[in-house]
């Protein structure tokens, strides 16, 4: 025996509500780019799909049919004619690190300016933390360059005032000293200092291979996920007043992270990029 009041909105109407919710309101002559629950409810009534309905009922119907409020994201296709070969080489380095060397993912992080950064934390209800608004930032910026060692999962980094080829080459020399007897394979993007003639010449003479990402494919660099963690745990919710203070906070987090690091394996194992029929020019 069924219990509870019978549904006043039949299944066909519920289907229509979900179809309309996924539509651009402008296609239905409404002058806004997205639906709020209230606007959607008002449209359903005005268009005669229902005689009356509450906002909560609209929300519940959408939830039952697997429709949720989601953020729109952007994407960019790679225009690199060698996208396929470059991506496959990088994935092969991730999956089968060469026995004669070490694979490192290298990139810059920043700019590191001084500002109050929004973040999240556990607080009592109704007692949010407030940070100052920073309209003037006149203390300049700094930049971090880092390398993710896949064999150990540890980050090696430097923070400098500039990010020219000079600073990049100096960082590469610290990596060379760290592993003097191993061939280094560096996965990195197409930032111009990475391709400076002096950098290329030094790398060729010192057993360092520069493995460049396809254009518009920074997501292939494993270090990007680590940078997201640095931003989340070391910077979000902070309001550092000096660069020394901010540099110290970043360094403290990275030292803690390195103490708990593990070798990096299994990059994007279940991703569509692993499929043989993946459209290799779509990022």
UniProtKB/TrEMBL annotation:
UniProt cross-references to SUPFAM superfamilies, sorted A to Z: Homeodomain-like, Ribonuclease H-like
Pfam families found in the cross-reference section: DDE_3 (PF13358), HTH_32 (PF13565)
GO molecular function: nucleic acid binding
Database matches in InterPro entries: Homeodomain-like_sf, RNaseH-like_sf, RNaseH_sf, Tc1-like_DDE_dom, Transpos_IS630-like
Domain Tc1-like transposase DDE: 102-237
Protein name: Transposase
Organism: Micromonospora carbonacea
